[in-house]
Write a structure and sequence with these properties.
- There is one protein chain.
- The longest helix has 21 residues.
- Helices cover 57% and strands 0% of the residues.
- It is mainly alpha-helical and 79 residues long.
- The termini are close together.
């Protein structure tokens, strides 16, 4: 039971990382990030708004950290 729960928690965490199924959409070449890049200006990956969504920004960094922590917890639950 703990193995499958751990795998599920890890999978959710992995999805939110910048290279995961959800997080990758926010990258400059992803579905959401690519649209922001096309709009440009403050929404560009280096703009006032866009930079907050990178894996180092306030929003993206929080999601990246949460993804890493959930992946770690998933591994712990499996033990």
């Amino acid at each position: 039971m703990s193995e499958s729960a751990g795998n599920a928690i890890k999978a959710v965490g992995d999805a939110f990382k910048s290279d995961g199924a959800i997080g990758s959409n926010f990258n400059a070449d992803g579905a959401i990030g690519g649209t922001a890049q096309a709009v440009g200006g403050p929404f560009d990956k280096d703009g006032a708004v866009g930079k907050q969504f990178t894996d180092k920004g306030a929003v993206g960094g929080t999601a990246e950290g949460m993804g890493q922590e959930a992946s770690r917890v998933g591994e712990e639950v499996k033990k």
